[in-house]
Write a structure and sequence with these properties.
21 helices; eight-stranded mixed β-sheet; alpha/beta; 636 residues; MetI-like fold; five-stranded antiparallel β-sheet; binds adenosine-5'-triphosphate
Length: 636
């Protein structure tokens, strides 16, 4: 509609309407006059009776041009429909086919795209033979490769969005993911490009008819009329001009309307949030444990220009039933990648490995999509991108139960309404019928949590769930997570860059720096017993009531290293006021107390000093190192 408000859009829309009207009504109104042979008026020039003259049988060329609109537009649209459909199927196929077959399809498309469209059209026209059917198929197959490429590109651009990740966490199958979540969200650019393709198809079809390999007598389209008119262009140009003007005007109308629609869509796109990079996982795991989530030596690596980079470098922790664990660290420390890896959402070319990666005591890789979809809930940072914008909120929630619990559409929808009520969405039944954009940010985030509650989640992973929300709504969302944990005994892994949020809500905190855990400790010891210089620096950077308002806020000098910049030694050393010679080597995470682990050489030194002073203490320290974490439940 926005396109119609521009002069180009409005003018091309009027032209298209006229063309469609002509295609529908011209043969009914003037079909007889266009076919009437008049041997007394053969090959005449323009006159008041015959505006564009007559042909070799005395038929009125003006009426023939009008009547030919139906065949020309009809076949152009048919060719576009076949071409676009074939292209979309080919473009979407790699997303649903096994990897090898998908690659094969992509290669075929890549080769086909390299050939000029008109060349392909002529090639297919020869294969299918002269005639309307051949011309339509030739043009359709010439259009298809560029649409396949477009579909592939658009699919890739939305496949990293949070709502796709959310649907994948819920175990939605590839085909359904494609038809319900990907295609509706790329429909707009596809339709716009299809409109422009119709213009090109019309011109190409006219070209084939003009060359004599398109529409055959006694049928006629603008291309054939142009060919006939051209034979006597030096005697009277009007017969050729009529068809030529019709082809140009119609081709332009389609193309300009497509351009105007694209420009209008482009304006809207600028306001849309950007997508995340695509992710998937290939995970090694094994062993068994009674924790809800057991992670040992988790590593996530990506190929880079100068070799592999490893943003997550050997992370180990355990999450137990009903526990709320906070993960803090500056941007880029690997918090989100850790969460994505345990949700099986790191995509190729990313590689995830771990000595143990278990969910509910079973290897994560062996956990079925259905089980993972109903027992692991993921809440993302940006509530705007977490939902598919083209589908009603209730339907998106219901999808989980349709897929996993085999509930009917109606029953699944009722369950969705029930879960929306559980997260205190007012007028839940009405809200369930609304689209995500009709929800406020906080409501969307609660609806996202409700989606996790469609199953019976044993673990809720919330990745910066409150960052995009104002303080009051933040508190509501955090309270809701705490309530779910209390009422349903679900474990919660809360990722945040804000250590105070974690301090207010969690039982334990994992502090991450440069892809590793540098400290883990119970929350009640956070402000009193934090030992790692990075944790103490994070705490010092939090203003409190005693903070001098005149003095500048404390900041940690320097910046964390990028994954590709991490060198040997403690990665925090360049920013650490206590760094010394020993820090040229990277310290291990060692247990210093019950549930308290620290990766800092100072701790090693303290343990050794303590051990020298008290032989029994030395024994304890060594025992702790050997057995890993105690109550904290993790080792490395
Ligand atoms: N697909 C990817 N390919 C290459 N590098 C990646 C990819 N995804 C993330 N990274 C890198 O991994 C590092 C850790 O990213 P991650 O998103 O886990 O950080 P984070 O601690 O969650 O930070 P933030 O709080 O900003 O989200 C970053 O430096 C990031 O650039």
């Amino acid at each position: 509609m926005r396109a119609l408000r521009t002069p180009v859009g409005a003018a091309s829309a009027v032209l298209l309407t006229v063309l469609v009207a002509l295609a529908l009504f011209a043969p009914l109104l003037w079909g007889d006059r266009a076919a009437a042979i008049d041997t007394d008026a053969l090959q005449q020039g323009p006159s008041a009776d015959h505006l564009l003259g007559t042909d070799s049988l005395g038929r009125d060329i003006f009426y023939r041009v009008l009547v030919a609109t139906r065949l020309t537009i009809g076949f152009a649209l048919l060719a576009t429909l076949i071409g676009v459909t074939t292209g979309i199927v080919l473009g979407a196929a790699p997303a649903v086919l096994p990897r090898l077959a998908g690659r094969l399809v992509t290669s075929v498309v890549n080769i086909a795209v390299a050939f000029p469209g008109l060349l392909l059209a002529l090639f297919f026209a020869v294969i299918f033979g002269a005639g309307t059917k051949g011309a339509v198929l030739a043009i359709a197959f010439a259009i298809a490769p560029s649409f396949a490429r477009l579909t592939q590109t658009l699919t890739a651009s939305v496949s990293g969005r949070d709502y796709i990740a959310a649907a994948r966490v819920c175990g939605v199958g590839r085909f359904r993911l494609l038809t319900r979540h990907v295609l509706p969200n790329i429909a707009e650019p596809l339709v716009i490009n299809a409109t422009m393709a119709a213009g090109s198809a019309l011109i190409a079809l006219a070209g084939l008819s003009f060359l004599g390999i398109g529409v055959q007598a006694p049928s006629y389209d603008w291309g054939r009329l142009l060919g006939e008119g051209l034979n006597r262009i030096y005697v009277t140009p009007a017969p050729a001009l009529g068809a030529a003007v019709a082809v140009v005007v119609a081709g332009l109308a389609f193309n300009l309307f497509g351009e105007a629609a694209a420009a209008a869509a482009g304006d809207r796109q600028q306001a849309r949030p950007r997508s995340l990079p695509p992710r998937e996982s290939t995970v090694d795991s094994g062993g068994g444990d009674d924790g809800v989530l057991t992670v040992r030596n988790l590593r996530v690596a990506f190929p880079g220009a100068a070799g592999w980079v490893t943003p997550v470098r050997g992370v180990s922790f355990t999450v137990r039933q009903g526990e709320m664990i906070g993960v803090v660290g500056e941007s880029g420390s690997g918090k989100s990648l850790t969460a994505l890896a345990v949700s099986r959402l790191v995509e190729r070319p990313g590689v995830v490995t771990a000595d143990r990666l278990e969910f509910g005591g079973k290897p994560l890789l062996g956990t079925s999509d259905r089980e993972l979809g109903t027992s692991l809930a993921m809440v993302f940072q940006d509530p705007m991108t977490s939902f598919n914008p083209t589908s009603r909120v209730g339907r998106q929630l219901a999808e989980v139960s349709e897929v996993h619990h085999g509930l009917s559409r109606k029953a699944a929808f009722e369950r969705a309404v029930d879960r929306l009520k559980a997260v205190r969405i007012p007028s839940a039944a009405k809200r369930a019928r609304q689209y995500p954009h009709e929800f406020s940010g906080g409501m969307r985030q609660r609806a996202m949590i409700a989606m996790g509650l469609m199953g019976e989640p044993r673990l809720v992973i919330a990745d910066e769930p409150t960052t995009a929300l104002d303080v009051t709504v933040q508190r509501e969302v955090l309270r809701l997570l705490a309530r779910i944990r209390a009422e349903r005994s679900a474990a919660v892994l809360l990722i945040s860059h804000d250590i105070t949020v974690v301090a207010q809500t969690c039982d334990r905190v994992l502090v991450m720096y440069a892809g590793r855990i540098v400290e883990e400790l119970p929350i009640d010891e956070l402000f009193t017993s934090a030992r790692h210089p990075y944790t103490t620096a994070l705490l010092a950077a939090v203003p409190d009531l005693d903070t001098d308002r005149e003095a500048p806020l404390a900041v940690i000098p320097g910046r964390p290293p990028e994954p590709g910049e991490i060198e040997a030694g403690c990665p925090f050393a360049p920013r650490c006021p206590l760094a010394h010679e020993r820090c040229r080597q990277e310290p291990e995470l060692i247990a210093v107390d019950d549930g308290h682990r620290v990766a800092c050489w100072r701790m090693e030194a303290e343990l050794v000093d303590a051990a020298v002073g008290a032989p029994e203490a030395r024994q304890t320290g060594e025992t702790q190192r050997a057995s890993g974490p105690s109550d904290g439940g993790s080792d490395e």
